[in-house]
Amino acid sequence: MAKAAEQKQNPTVASAETKLDIRDVVNTAITYGEDNRHGGGRRNDVAMFVLRAMCMAVSTVAVTLMVTARETSMTTLYGFEFQLHAVWSLSDSLIYLVVVSSATVLYSLIQLIISGTRLMRKSPVIPTRTQAWFCFVADQIIGYAMVSGGSAALGVTNMNRTGIRHMPLPNFCKSLGFFCDHLAGSIVFALFAFLLLAASSLLDVLHLSRHR
């Protein structure tokens, strides 16, 4: 009878031990997943901070190159010598690029301060889904504005280098090399800033997926 009672109790004990083991495995898996998620989130936060810093630096260079684009030189047209005076502020397209790049610098600076402060406090850079959506939309708007500004400025720079089709205008960049080089450099850095904003948008998407 005792052996029979023990045999009846053994399945119960084994079942309890099995449930306990399964519970431990589940808890361990959950803890491991949370650790990985927090670790990945921390890496994403650091990456976001670096991207904001790079975007601000690149946009600042784009603005600096553009506002220093000015030069006075001489050129010959139809046998006559003319003085050329090139200033970035004489073109609406170049002014637009300066405005957009300046807005990008300001936006990146604000995001950089917020990100740095939260990293120092060891809190998430983007704590809520609403803020993740805001950053995503803002990155998209600023990024596409940079592309449009760079494209508009590129048209002006290309016309300076090639002249106007069917008209015997010279390559002004031969006489205004400093001016044209600054324009080209500013456009390159503006497009690079767009790529950094695009990368920030991808991190925004990762934050959105983590805050589901």
TrEMBL record:
Against InterPro entries, the record matches this protein to: CASP/CASPL (IPR006459), CASP_dom (IPR006702)
The domain of life for this entry's organism is: Eukaryota
- Check the record and name the Pfam families matching this protein: CASP_dom
Query: What GO terms fall under cellular component here?
Result: plasma membrane
Where does this polypeptide localize? Cell membrane
Membrane-spanning parts: 46-69, 94-114, 134-156, 176-203
Task: Say which species the protein is native to.
Answer: Arabidopsis thaliana x Arabidopsis arenosa
Keywords in UniProt for this one?
A: Cell membrane, Glycoprotein, Membrane, Transmembrane, Transmembrane helix
Q: Where do the coiled-coil regions begin and end? A: none
Q: Which family does it belong to?
A: Belongs to the Casparian strip membrane proteins (CASP) family.
Provide the protein name. CASP-like protein
**Record's subunit section:** Homodimer and heterodimers.
What topology in the membrane does the UniProt record assign? Multi-pass membrane protein
Q: Kindly report the protein's main subcellular placement as a broad class.
A: membrane
Q: Where is the Casparian strip membrane protein domain?
A: 42-196
